[in-house]
Amino acid sequence: MDDDCCSTQLIDGDGVFNAAGLEHFMKTVKLAECGLSYAVVSIMGPQSSGKSTLLNHLFGTNFREMDAFMGRSQTTKGIWLAKCAGIEPCTIVMDLEGTDGRERGEDDTTFEKQSALFALAVSDIVLINMWCHDIGREQAANKPLLKTVFQVMMRLFSPRKTTLLFVIRDKTKTPLENLEPILREDIQKIWDSVPKPQAYKETPLSEFFNVQVVALSSYEEKEEKFKEQVASLRQRFYHSIAPGGLAGDRRGVIPASGFSFSAQQIWKVIKDNKDLDLPAHKVMVATVRCEEIANEKLTYMAAMEEWLQLEEAVQHDLVPGFGKKLTVILDKCLSGYDMEAVYFDESVRISKRQQLESKLLQLVNPAYESMLGHIRAKTLDGFKEALDKALERGEGFAIAAHDCTQVFMSKFDKGCEDATIEQASWNPSKVRDKLRRDIDAHVASVRAAKLSELTTLYEGRLAKALSEPVEALLDAASDDTWPAIRELLRRETKSAISGFSSALSSFNLDEADIDKMLIKLEEYARSVVESKAREEVGRVLIRMKDRFSTLFSHDADSMPRVWTGNEDIKAITKTARSASLKLLSVMTAIRLDDATDKVEKTLSLALMDASDGGATNRSIQSLDPLASSSWEEVPPTKTLITPVQCKSLWRQFKAETDYTVTQAISAQASHKRNNSMLPPPWAILAILVLGFNEFMTLLRNPLYLAVIFVVFLVGKALWVQLDISGEFRNGALPGLLSLSTKFLPTVMNILRRLADEGQQPAAPVLDRNHSKSFRSGVISNSSSSASSNVASSESEIEYSSPPRQQ
Predict the structure, then answer these.
(1) Would you report the helix, strand and coil content of the chain in percent, each value rounded to 5?
(2) DSSP 558
(3) Which of 176-180, 203-207, 445-449 has the highest mean pLDDT?
(4) φ/ψ bin of 31: left (φ > 0), alpha (ψ from -120 to 50), beta (otherwise)
(5) Residues marked as binding for GTP?
(6) I want to staple 7 with a disulfide (CB 3.0 to 4.6 A). Which of 82, 327, 608, 746 is the partner?
């Protein structure tokens, strides 16, 4: 064995005390040097319940453990002693032989009681090891053993303060908070039932015992969690005798040097005391026989045909008269027990009857719970159906929900009365509360759905009432656009809120909730207007061009404008662009509040006035008011088009409308030419040179025209070849001198080229192509000359309007 633990058998299985082994143990662990600074811990409990395993993990000892693969049998015989490893102060632990072992048999329990009494008398802390599922059982929980031990201990020894630490093994889902009161109540009952000497008649249990409870998980199934919990429990044994520790209030401590002698004397007294044998024969027989009868009745009940049919039926649906039927079945079992156990000890009989009744109720409880579940489900389904019908009839939501709730909760209560079992005091309040929560949850769900439908309805009405009018108002953009939109929004919102508020009154909502929903509806109305405005911003350029085109191309009577030459195109253009600029200024920001801004003025100064002032004013201007990403008096959240974007849109707008203006100017000029009463200038010149008769002769004879045309071509060719306009650029006399020297060579050159071209077979084609090229050049030059007469700047075209005819 490990030297640190120094495991020693203190008492063997026959009750022989190993005095020599104890002395050796004390010397090895140097117990005598500890004085009063030591503690004794022992453990007791059923055989094969894992006592040794627990001690080895808890204190680092090496007691022999049961090999599960070899079967369940006795491992520890007698009482073993060891020193705990690594715990201060020095702690001695005793491993007791398990109770209820088959090796000793059911009649030989003397050693069990003797070893338990010895542990209580010697130890400061007694661990009582028990299975979780044994709580509430008479024998498995060691209650008779403890009762006898308490009695004899009170008579044999001066009572000392001992800590009883109940260790619940293989803890189930039942919370420790529910198990601990049961154990404490059982210990208190044992203490109250124990006959006490006169001096201790009124002494409470807490005067001699400190009862504590701890629970551990299964070692086999949850080994890691078991080890964690044991490690946590180990911490409680450090400084266990200090104030506040597990054994902090112990009394009558024997010095460590006298521990061996004291233990031997205590064991001697216990061995010589005959009162520790079995209880009275009468009580023993009553206990055994009454328990057998109770087990027979429990088995009879489990196999009873009536019960099996009832259990099967209640699994699927409601069973009318469930409570009465089950009450009769239970009464039959309990009456049979009373008849067979009538002659046994009264206290034992009553105790076993109570246990039987408890077990029977445990057997039928699932069926009872199923019955309540069916009642709850049927009630909830009926409530849902009734509420839907009430709402379809047009009843107010709050009234319909309240009335249906009252009716169906009353039906549930009647169903629970029908399921009540007389032998049980079960309260269906938990199921009733769950039903009420389910009903409330359904009511809340339906209310939310109805409110959502109602909100969607009024939001849809608002959207329909606002979208198209707002679009029309924005399209007509004027000074009254946003005031009209605000009035429209106010009127439609007021109408919607009035109807919505009236509809909400049937839901019995809090004022705060109603206010929130109304505010949300108002915000939705504003969001519709804002969304529509943002949507229309994407078409602002198209609308500006449409407005310009409408005003520019139609007169005040909306008739298509005919450019006769009397119209002031510049004024018309300015008017049309001003209207387009008005539309742009309206669309720059959302103006649902009464606040004013200077957006229109800024745009007019920056775009219209700057254009009228020309380049001189723009050069004088030190700062471009549109060189910004925000307006001065407009919040960013309300801005639809920034100043920079306005400038870009205006530039694009002008670029796309300039062509329309140019076309109008051209149309006006053409109209003026077509409507002139005088002949063309060349005709007037011809009449003056030739005279009217000769001119008419020329017109009547096409040959003359051909000759004149040929002369014109030759003259044009000489003009181009001699560069007459360039020659006279330096003066008349130098020009004449230069032309006189170049005239003859130029004429000869032209004649030579004509002769060369006449010799080629494709001369006619070339002549036609040359003629076409020539005419194209003339036309091109004429177009260039005409276009050069139109002066334009980067941002505007200069227009010249003819004087109005008187």
Answers:
(1) 65, 5, 30
(2) S
(3) 445-449
(4) alpha
(5) 45-52
(6) 82
Cβ(216)–Cβ(171) below 8 Å? yes
Please check whether residue 597 is in contact with residue 633, taking contact to mean a CB–CB distance below 8 angstroms: yes
DSSP character string of 142-200:
THHHHHHHHHHHHHHS----EEEEEEEES--SS-HHHHHHHHHHHHHHHHHHS---GGG
**What confidence tens digit (pLDDT) does each residue in 488-523 have?**
999 999 999 888 888 888 888 888 888 899 999 989
Side chain identity at residue 444, one-letter code? A
Cα 15 to Cα 17: distance, rounded to the nearest angstrom:
6
User: Could you give the CA distance from residue 456 to residue 460 in angstroms, rounded to a whole number?
Assistant: 6
Amino acid at 201: K
Identity of the amino acid at 511? E
Indicate the SS3 state at residue 678.
coil
- Dist CA 123 CA 29 (whole Å): 18
Query: Measuring CA to CA, how many Å separate 527 from each of 463, 467, 504, 533, 752?
Result: 10, 11, 22, 10, 85
Nearest by Cα to 293 from 327, 343, 329: 343
Distance, first Cα to last Cα, the chain: 140
- The rounded distance, in Å, linking the Cα atoms of 287 and 304 is 26
CB 301 within 8 A of CB 363: yes
Q: Are strands 90-96 and 79-83 parallel, antiparallel or unpaired?
A: antiparallel
Query: Does residue 656 contact residue 644 with C-beta atoms inside 8 Å?
Result: no
Q: What is the DSSP letter of 253?
A: P
pLDDT digits (tens, 9 = 90+) for 448-494: 998 899 899 999 999 999 989 998 988 888 888 889 998 999 999 99
Annotated binding site: 45-52
Q: How crowded is the C-beta side of 477, counted as CA atoms within 13 Å?
A: 26
Q: In 3-state terms, what secondary structure has residue 721? A: helix
Q: Among candidates 333, 332, 352, which has minimal Cα distance to 344?
A: 352
CB 211 within 8 A of CB 205: yes
CB-CB contact of 431 with 373 (8 Å): yes
> At 309, which amino acid appears?
Q
Q: Is 396 helix (H, G, I), strand (E, B) or coil?
A: coil
C-alpha span between 562 and 198 (Å, rounded): 134
Report which of 519, 491, 474, 490 is spatially closest to residue 594, judged by C-alpha positions. 490
Alpha helices in 476-510 (DSSP H): 481-504
Q: Where are the alpha helices (DSSP H) in 279-321?
A: 281-303, 305-314
Tell me how far apart the alpha carbons of residues 596 and 591 are, in angstroms, rounded to a whole number: 8
Q: Whose CA is closest to 94, among 223, 266, 277? A: 266
Measure the CA–CA gap between 553 and 420, rounded to whole angstroms: 94
The Cα 8–Cα 82 span in angstroms is: 6
Give dist(CA 317, CA 375) in Å, integer: 9
| Cβ(109)–Cβ(47) below 8 Å | no
pTM for the model: 0.45
DSSP states of 724-792 = HHHHGGG-HHHHHHHHHHHHHHHHHHHHHHHHHHHHSTTHHHHHHHHHHHHHHHHHHHHHHHHHHTS-B
Q: Residue 344 CB: number of other CB atoms within 10 A?
A: 19
Q: Which residue has the higher pLDDT, 19 or 137?
A: 19
Q: Is 343 helix (H, G, I), strand (E, B) or coil?
A: coil
CA torsion 67-113-288-425 (nearest 10°) is -90
Q: List all residues 6 or more positions away from 373 whose beta carbon is below 8 Å from its beta carbon.
A: 431
